[in-house]
Write a structure and sequence with these properties.
By secondary structure, the protein is mainly α. 73% of the residues lie in helices and 0% in strands.
Length: 186
């Protein structure tokens, strides 16, 4: 079997990072390399041609997830004509929705990766990326009247509890109550 072109190798790497970003948010970073590569449609043997280690992939996938989050914030601002309050309100509504609760693979890396990052040592690159991403998200949520970190903690806690109680009426109540509390001043 011949070597793949540099362009194909770059495409394969991109596909692995995107797949890992989704799988890690959905299932956690304990997903095996073999399962990850299978989900990306590639062979297990190709992993180490692309990445020095699974830890290196976790670093890159975490950065990718937070890059997606930042792009969504920018897109939200554009969709709302640069009106930050409107973009924040739309984000809160989306974040605290049944769709987001039920789709962690496409959702917020703050909630999806928190447990895995808590287990990482403080010297890991993924944990540094995660910490920076949490700070950036909190800053984005800050208003003149509301602290962004408080808003993020409320959103995060509500989403995690709603996911843990999914399938019960309490799950929907958690989302609705948190959404109302965060948008009451609007």
């Amino acid at each position: 079997m011949g070597r793949v072109s540099q362009a194909q190798a770059e495409e394969n790497r991109r596909r692995v990072v995107e797949t890992a970003s989704r799988l890690f948010r959905e299932q956690g970073t304990h997903v095996s390399v073999a399962d990850l590569m299978k989900a990306a449609g590639l062979t297990h043997g190709g992993f180490y041609k692309q990445f020095a280690s699974k830890e290196a992939l976790i670093d890159e996938a975490t950065a990718h997830a937070f890059g997606d989050l930042a792009r969504r914030h920018d897109d939200g601002l554009q969709q709302h004509g640069g009106r930050r309050a409107a973009a924040q309100r739309a984000l809160i509504d989306t974040y605290l929705s049944p769709e987001h609760r039920d789709s962690p693979a496409d959702g917020c890396p703050v909630a999806a990766l928190a447990t895995d990052m808590a287990r990482e040592g403080g010297d890991h690159e993924a944990r540094r990326i995660y910490t920076e991403g949490v700070g950036d998200f909190a800053e984005w949520l800050t208003t003149e009247d509301q602290d962004g970190l408080t808003r993020l903690c409320t959103m995060f806690g509500a989403l995690v509890l709603a996911r843990a109680t999914s399938g019960s009426p309490l799950s929907e109540e958690i989302l609705t109550t948190a959404r109302a509390a965060l948008t009451a001043a609007d």
